[in-house]
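Exercise 3.2. Students should predict the tertiary structure of the chain below and write it as structure tokens, then compare their answer with the key that follows.

Predict this chain's 3D structure.
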Amino acid sequence: MYKVLLVEDDASLGYILKEYLEMHHFQIELAKDGEAGLQAFNRTAFDVCILDVMLPRKDGFAVAAEIKKLNDKIPFIFLTARSLKIDKLKGFNLGADD
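Answer key:
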């Protein structure tokens, strides 16, 4: 079973994503802000991270940069409504897989 760190501040979306992924046999830890996401990452080994970009306390780009310093092999996906090319390029430059 793959362990996924899901960092999403929208309670409804976070709940839906968590339930959906658990139905498909993923083990999910949901964090509601960037700081909580980093704390979870530091105490548990994950196989992949799904990060919202616009988060309270620390945005998803900053969380990704810190995660990559700790483990440069872990894949991550940004979950965002942002669609500007500069945002996409920033995500890919940080090492996002999608």
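Discussion points: The chain is about 45% helix and 20% strand. The CA atoms of residues 37 and 43 lie 10 Å apart.
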